[in-house]
Amino acid sequence: MKGEPYNVGLSEANLSKMELCEEIKKQVPAFTIMEAPIGKDPDQRNYIVSNEKLEATGFKPTHSLQWGITELIKGYQVIRRNQYSNV
Q: 17 Cβ partners below 8 Å, 6+ apart?
């Protein structure tokens, strides 16, 4: 693997932005998903990343997308508590 570039990711997490929002909403029911009825999303990144090269080495991720979402929620909760405790 030395000297070789690899995409490091989770193949099961190759989702559209809407699918990702739906996964977040499963853990945060109050999460609001908003779509613009007209216009163009300034963030046009919407592609599938291949982890095939890395997976061919036998690499297996130890964390799931749901675990990552849970960890981010915990982090945001800590930040929020700290913001309000400093007021």
A: 41, 46
